[in-house]
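Re: [help] complex structure
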Amino acid sequence: MAELEGKRALVTGAAQGLGKAIATLFVERGAKVMISDIDEAGAKLAADELGESARAIRCDVTQEADHEAAVQATVDAFGGLDILVNNAGIEVVKPLFHHTEQEFDAIYNINVKGTWFGMRAAMAALPQPGGVIVNMASLAGLGGVPLFGAYSASKASVVQLTRCAATELKPMGIRINAVCPAFIATAMVDRLAPIVTEIVGVPFDDLAALKQGRVGTPQEVAEMVAFLASDESSWCTGGAYVLDGGLQAGML
Amino acid sequence: MAGLLQGKVAIITGAGKGIGKAIAEAYAGEGATVVVSDIDEGLAKETASRIPGASAIACDVRSEEQVKSLVDQTVAQHGGLQIMVPNAGIGRPVPLLNMDYEEWRAVTSVNLDGVFLCIRYGAPAIIASGGGAIVNICSITAQAGTPLIGHYSAAKAGVMSLTQTACQELRGQGVRVNAVLPGFVETEMVTSVKGDFERMLGFPEGQFDQVIAMKQGRYGKAEEVARMAVFLASDRSSFSNGSPFVLDGGCRASLL
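Output below.
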């Protein structure tokens, strides 16, 4: 039962972390995947691990020409593009007014403009109807998260871009959804855990256990992305789907 | 290849027809042992007879005794319970100021009290069986005012709140609780009241379909709701808990 059999996907930021887990699951489910990352060597390594069904390309998501080249490379390699996953993103963890202007701009350029460029470039190749876009937002895009001010705002932007694009592209039969994970066990969380622990004064793991039961796994996020990328979710568009172990549901 | 729900026992209320029936069929297709429950025993039996391995148990979800018995019988027959889908629901359009209290209670007792009873008696059996999932069939009307179905809409908002609280209380015991929020789905419950909506809202005939086309592209299919219900019952959604899962063709994404 390979739900993505024959689908051709482009996943940004896929050399590691969530993007790599998504690419891996997509290949398991029968898709061909173009692994896009600013780290070209990392992208190639990931593609080699996944074998025949994966290819790699360097892409700086702040550059529209890079997106266009990645879309073209996917079409050249696999004969088309059915699924775009805008996953590349960065974080800055510090009090909001300690962010530098460079940090603020980098977050917006990568997380927001990068997503917008990605969707725009994919329009040249996505089938109408039938094309699918999944944007990696965050639970931080649905609620304020102290120490993640610019990141949180950028992910809220991704959610709204998703809703607007879904509405505008509905007549073309292109579905666009956002995924909103809480803390997931990736290198990003490894980086930020000690910072959160130091500033909040509570061990990160204790905080995560209290709020979300446990830290989620990249495979769990990949499952949600695969569901939204497949025909299983044929009536889902413009949605923001949460995986947070119950964090958002709780008042305390 | 093993299905996503292989070896699980699932109860679906209101499964004689419509969305509940589609969920029962999809769950069975994924390897679950399905209990088709409905207030209409004949309908439950008929639906169950067409689903491999399924059995039928009549249940009025407004009755504490009957819900308790539904769970007890399921556990006695199948040795446990892993998945509960409180799906039974009713609704008919009535403006708030024409709605008598009896009408209000008729809808909220099925759509909200019934879900409470399913959680109240289903969750202990799921915990005793080693954990599992509750998938509440809610509605996008939980998220915004919906003219003429104030009782339905309020009950569904209650179901969303109940989903969140149950998630918090049951998280430590291995029970995940999520809600599916479909838009308007092409079922008898919706198609049979289109004319009533048009009349009461002063729409010309056929305009209800136009509003649906504008807001959600088309009517959803019961099978599409069922696929979401499969995802939420399966281990594929293992980190999702207490959340609304909207499927509405984009209706809620746009304010206009």
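The two ends of chain B are 45 Å apart (CA to CA).
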